[in-house]
Amino acid sequence: MAQKQIEVTCPCCATHLVVDVLTQTVLKHAQPRQLDETGKEILDESRWDQARDKVKGRLDGGDDKFDSALSREKSRSRDLDELFKKAQDKLAGREPDAGGE
């Protein structure tokens, strides 16, 4: 089975890339990690904050969407009954007119 993704390191900026072989698109990229004078990786707290905010935004919006979809489903039967009754009333209102023509 052929490999679908390849991992490449850019020779210019040392960015790590994951490329889809079939579509020739970059799926993931990671900039090179910066090291301090002791050789330990310097953690960028702003990246963590951005990721947390992005996930929180998705979760907050998801709860509202779920609640609204749930309330629509709960009232769906009642709404369909009302539409059916309106259609029956409309049909009943037309029958005498149709018979008189």
Please give the structural blueprint.
Blueprint: E1 5-9, E2 16-20, E3 25-30, H1 45-100
Antiparallel strand pairs: 1-2, 2-3
Spell out the key features of this protein.
101 residues; elongated; 3 strands; alpha+beta; disordered C terminus
Q: How many separate structural domains? A: 1
Which spans of ≥5 residues are poorly predicted at pLDDT below 50? 97-101
Which H/E pattern describes the elements? EEEH
Question: In DSSP terms, counting alpha (H) and pi (I) runs of 4 or more, how many helices?
Answer: 1
Q: How large a portion of the residues is in β-strands, by DSSP E?
A: 15-25%
Structural class, from helix and strand content?
A: alpha+beta
How far from one another are the termini? 74 Å
Classify the helix fraction into a percent range: 55-70%
Radius of gyration: 30 Å
Strand order of the largest sheet: 1-2-3
Q: Which shape, going by the Cα principal axes?
A: elongated
Tell me the major beta sheet.
3 strands, antiparallel
**pLDDT averaged residue by residue:** 80
How many beta-strand elements?
Answer: 3
Short description:
This protein has 101 residues and is α+β, with helices and mostly antiparallel strands. Helices cover 55% and strands 16% of the residues.
Structure description:
The chain is an alpha+beta fold and 101 residues long. It has one domain (5-29, 44-100). It is 55% helix and 16% strand. It has 1 helix and 3 strands; from the N terminus they run E-E-E-H. A 3-stranded antiparallel β-sheet has the order 1-2-3, with no helix packed on it. The chain is elongated and about 85 Å long. The N and C termini lie far apart (74 Å). Residues 97-101 have low confidence and may be disordered.
